Amino acid sequence: MTEAFVPKTIAVFREGYDLHRLKADALAGLTVAIVALPLSMAIAIASGVTPDRGLYTAIVGGFLVSLLGGSRHQIGGPAGAFIVLVASTVATHGVEGLILATMISGLFLMLAGLLRLGDYVKFIPYPVTVGFTAGIAVIIFASQISELLGLTLVGKEPGPLVEKLPALFKALPTVNPAAAGIAALTVATILLLRRLRPTWPGMLIAVALASLATAFLALDVGTIGTRFGGIPRSLPLPRMPDFSLQLFQAVLPNAMAFALLGAIESLLSAVVADGMTGRRHRSNVELIGQGIANIGSGLFGGFCVTGTIARTATNVRAGGTSPVAGMLHALFLLLFMAAAAPLASYIPLASLAGVLSIVSWNMIERPAFAALIRTSRGDAVVLLVTLLLVVFRDLTEGIIVGFALGAMLFIGRMSKSVTVAPQTEDKERPLDNSDSNTVVYRLGGAFFFGAAATVGSVLDRIADQYHHFVLDCSGLHFIDSTGANVIAGTLRKARRAGVTVYITGAEPDVRRTLETHEVHGPNVVYLRSVTEARAMIAGKSTPP
């Protein structure tokens, strides 16, 4: 194993791990576990599975993410970003199909890490990440409206937003005041504690208060006990999901979507942790760790695992120093489940819906959203297209189209940064403009396919108009095959007209690319500077 694939856990223990760091990690792990306990169950329920599967995901997947990942501070578990994909997979292929898709996605993530694709996942444009996160937040909130208000819908609640909203509106007369009150109590408690006692576990306290209110006031609201019969007190034995070639083929697109979103979400979370700590994660190790965690989660009946930004940030703020904090967070969750499983039956579903409402609100990066809208029309288009496609079409489609638009925007901007213009003077002395048989053009920036048409039209106009054509490439930092082919075409035109071409100041990589595309020959001379070209044209020096 090369150093590039060594998990951060090993790196931390190589540095030296003492009791002081263990105490800090234990406190941080406990803090994150308190946050993750209600959140994991809420995400599982919103995803269409039982709450215990959310805990299995956080315990097994979270432990493996920290043990084998490439970040010191990453906390893994079920994420709100996956709710839409998981719910649609369960609705189409059942729980067994979900678990199989989760494990297949783990293989994809491991393969992506081994192929070092983690370096490229980070190139997702910022407007795309802001747009799809906001879109997911809208969908999550919409999925919780029926639980927030205690609505009784006729038939199954539709998945697509355009179908869901009319169904919810039609069910408004069935509002349950008790459920709405419990949801309001949960939201108000979380917001109040966030303002007055920001270090307290607001979500857990809010859910506990809502559970007490439901039990002592004998409120007629749905709970985990009435809906799911409670949760077990231990992990199940590992087992492989049902497998058939037909099911494998059916869930393959879901697995690819899980892997794509998991890679983006986990690496984005790792980048956030880096920004908070000044550390640097290993993206390819992170993908491998995430892949193994998804396989492990599936073996124990869990579903998609990824790095979670909110819990990772909580870990950093709580003083976590190493992956040990994430592993302890998983062990604390296991202890909570073993000790308090019977109490979970009293948790009202409206309270968990309130928790997810806060989560969805926090997912929308409002300052970034406003800045992108104000700063650039192009970035605003990418942001809004991604958002609308995620909300009204499909999450994967939103990411792909948003990325394509972002790439086109980048190409357009970069093409304008390439300069090609006549050089009237150099650093050493003015050019002798009396020589009507010589022209000097300076090429600068990054010459790639996006600028080929613009630069090519300029070079073609002057390629056969002079006896000597000096192309100064000292300001050219990069050239791709398309750019080199444009210069090769200019060279062929110059050769037919008997023009000598002097290419000056080309960096080694640029020259190598040019020569590979046959920018050489008897009428081509490579020199270090325009001054050398001038001296050669004047007959004061000979070709090197």
UniProtKB/TrEMBL annotation:
Biological-process GO terms, alphabetical: transmembrane transport
Pfam families in UniProt: STAS (PF01740), Sulfate_transp (PF00916)
Transmembrane segments: 26-47, 53-70, 98-118, 130-154, 174-193, 205-230, 250-273, 285-310, 330-359, 380-411, 439-459
Alphabetical UniProt keywords: Membrane, Transmembrane, Transmembrane helix
InterPro entries with a match to the protein in the record: SLC26A/SulP_dom, SLC26A/SulP_fam, STAS_dom, STAS_dom_sf
CDD domains assigned to the protein according to its UniProt record, in alphabetical order: STAS_SulP_like_sulfate_transporter
Stretches assigned to the STAS domain: 428-537
Topology in the lipid bilayer: Multi-pass membrane protein
Origin superkingdom: Bacteria
GO cellular component: membrane
Compartments reported by the entry: Membrane
Keyword match Signal: no
Protein name from the UniProt record: Sulfate transporter family protein
Organism (species): Ciceribacter naphthalenivorans
